[in-house]
Amino acid sequence: MPKVLVSDPIEQVGLDLLAQVAQVDVKVGLSEEELIKIIPEYDALMIRSGTKVTKAVIEAANQLKIIGRAGVGVDNVDVPAATRKGIMVVNSPEGNTIAAAEHTLAMMLSLARHIPDANAAVKAGQWDRKRFTGVEVYKKTLGIIGLGKIGSHVATVARAMGMKLLAYDPYLSTERAEQLGCRLVELDVLFAESDFITLHLPKTPETQHLINAKTIAKMKPTARIINCARGGIIDEAALVEALKTGKLAGAALDVFENEPLEAASPLRELGMEVVLTPHLGASTEEAQVNVAIDVAEQIRDVLLGLPARSAVNIPGLRPDVLEKLAPYMQLAETLGNLVGQLAGGRVESLEVRLQGELATNDSQPIVIAALKGLLSPALRERVNYVNAGLEAKERGIRVVETRDESQRDYAGSLTLIAKSPSETRSVSGALLAHSELRITSIDDFPISVAPTRYMLLTLHRDMPGIIGKIGTQLGSFNVNIASMQVGRKMVRGNAVMVISLDDPLPEGLLEEILKVPGIRDAYIVNL
Ligand SMILES: NC(=O)C1=CN([C@@H]2O[C@H](COP(=O)(O)OP(=O)(O)OC[C@H]3O[C@@H](n4cnc5c(N)ncnc54)[C@H](O)[C@@H]3O)[C@@H](O)[C@H]2O)C=CC1
Ligand SMILES: O=C(O)C(=O)COP(=O)(O)O
User: Fold this and answer.
1) Which stretches make up the ACT domain (predicted)?
2) CB 3.0-4.6 Å disulfide test: which of 56, 83, 214, 522 passes with 313?
3) Predicted ipTM?
């Protein structure tokens, strides 16, 4: 049974789902050292934002197939390191959208009306109304940075409260922003015009300290900022300074540069101009059930060899598209493996020719599958759908894609042409009825062979006696032939022979076969 480590608090419903297919160990609050020590035992890791999956953790994770983030942000996972190691990273892109958006709105209103401090004062026995006079959000301008899923829901509700909306999102169309009632503007305009600014973008090296002393200087001194996205997008030291010197009126923060927030953080010293919550954006009963089920299902599926729906580091495919492409991906991988073995390793470019119905589909999964096949003779199980593209790129393999939508003998067919410094090798294949794979040509010699585990392939002169000699040699080594086929372009010209074997070719036999007069080359191919 595979083993899953759950290292952050996850709703029971998710753990129950995993327990159907795996041994589930819940160990919350591990240090990095402790995690490194135990991670080699596990096939899957399920986390929230509490666990830092560093490069060192990933390097130690020799059996890990998948990291499941029960939430959105994967900035606590070294995704490039996971990709390199072929570990899939999945998340739950929508499970906590509403929770995070509602928390943002609650934070904005708490800040506007001093609810947390007023509440604390009443509970402490006071009745001071004047001190807690607030501001309205009605007719105020809300600047939304990052108009994705959470930003969009915040926009919808804020609009209903009568706010004017500005948005900055370099990856969003003006049309989509307008649908949400937002005016898409440059960042400086948003800074200058907003009364409230809310952040809903991911933390990346580009967005680190997007809010800093310089950008704060562009804001109104009466502006208030809300961050329910990620700590580190705001330079906390600059924010504290701006709040202390009246350059900014307030801040409501759910996320921090370091979590848990340090006991001595100057943010804790500030008054009611600051509202702080301990990363509660996703903490609703509903969201935690959503993300636990969403991610547990994906981990379960991947452990069962099925695809995941929200992989962060693998091309995403809708299940209906995947169903159609899966047999072609298998064909691409088999052909990639074959052409890789024929080309002998030093491949500099791979041309992927998609024909017929294949040419009308998303080609990325086909290309990735072909690269996985191409690299698998060298990298074995170290290459998979997650890292094949990256591995190929690092080896300097150039990928060229060509498409021809016309249908010839098959509904869809695929040709791979691998070029090494010394030669060019090509293989083609197609699917028969019931998704049966066929190799339909090798180096332009037409054949029709089902790929099998052990194959012997020869390039030879088409002349009497060759087939008999090779058959006799295989027989003398007690190797059983399952099928044999010869492909040639002209009588007594060059030809290929593909022999499917029931057993692996014994050592030394290939050398004997190469000595047969008329044989130009011979290969053992293991598919
Ligand atoms: N406080 C909490 O508990 C939670 C926090 N989050 C965080 O909220 C943030 C947003 O999440 P979603 O809306 O689900 O993600 P999303 O992917 O739907 O939206 C992010 C948006 O940011 C935009 N963006 C990317 N780079 C940008 C840049 N440099 N400037 C402006 N916009 C940029 C993208 O185009 C996208 O529209 C993430 O950082 C996520 O980690 C999410 C859930 C809960
Ligand atoms: O989903 C996200 O990005 C969040 O920030 C939620 O974090 P959490 O799962 O509550 O630790």
Assistant:
1) 455-527
2) 83
3) 0.99
What is the spatial distance between Cα 190 and Cα 378, in angstroms, rounded to a whole number? 52
Q: pLDDT tens, 226-275?
A: 999 999 999 999 999 999 999 999 999 999 999 999 999 999 999 999 99
229 lines ligand 1 (CB under 6 A): yes
The CATH code of the domain at 453-526 is 3.30.70.260
Place domain 316-451 in its CATH homologous superfamily. Answer: D-3-phosphoglycerate dehydrogenase; domain 3 (3.30.1330.90)
Q: Whose CA is nearest to atom 4 of ligand 1?
A: 281
Nearest to 485 by CA among 441, 525, 519: 441
Domain 3-94+286-304 bears CATH identifier 2.60.40.3880? no
Question: Do 3-94+286-304 and 453-526 come out as alike in CATH topology?
Answer: no
Q: Is 49 in the pocket of ligand 2 (CB under 6 A)?
A: yes
Residue with the two structure tokens 């007069």: 517
Handedness of CA 112, 114, 116, 122 (dihedral sign): negative
CA dihedral 275, 279, 284, 285 (to 10 degrees): -140
Q: How far is the CA of 90 from the centre of ligand 1 (A)?
A: 16
Cα distance between residue 318 and residue 316, in whole Å: 7
